[in-house]
């Protein structure tokens, strides 16, 4: 049979009554949202710098950033566990904490976010920023009030992909 004989929502009711499941769901949502927010904010600043500033070896720097995302996560799981459980210099332990999970997630989410946003920032005409500067805006105001609204589709794309990455990652969370 394609259709179950007695469909019911009892299993869904029982799983949401389980406090372990709801705690895990809440923690996953917090970690994913914080990782997404930090990844998009930090990534937008880094991507803007890579897209707009004149610097030598810009392509090489972007290639190095992207190469981080090809690094296998399993390679850092054991060292990260060891580091987080025995923090040096009297620092608080990050083992089994939300910040202890957000930090490595950012390591892998930032390269993706930066790569997506660099291409969006390059497409925005520089003349718009220069016009804002001529009108009396500071560099940050030009970035915040001109570039960010124009790059909203790129920010949304980076945010969605970062959220999906953080939500679906299980290896570091279980370690």
Structure in words:
The mean pLDDT is 91. The radius of gyration is 21 Å and the shape is globular. With 175 residues, the protein is an all-alpha fold. It has helices spanning 10-17, 19-52, 58-69, 74-85, 98-123, 126-134, 139-150, 152-168, 171-174. It contains 9 helices and no strands. Helix 2 runs parallel beside helix 5 (98-123), helix 5 (98-123) packs antiparallel against helix 8 and helix 6 (126-134) packs across helix 7 (139-150). It starts with 9 loop residues before the first helix and ends with a helix.
Number of helices: 9
Anisotropy-based shape: globular
Helix coverage percent of residues? over 70%
From the N-terminal CA to the C-terminal CA, the straight-line distance is 41 Å
Low-pLDDT runs of 5+ residues are: none
Beta-strand level of the residues, as a percent range? under 5%
Counting copies of identical and different chains, the oligomeric state is single chain
Q: Work out the radius of gyration.
A: 21 Å
- On the 0 to 100 scale, the average pLDDT is 91
User: What is the number of strand segments?
Assistant: 0
Structural class: mainly alpha
The H/E string reads HHHHHHHHH
User: Largest sheet at a glance?
Assistant: none
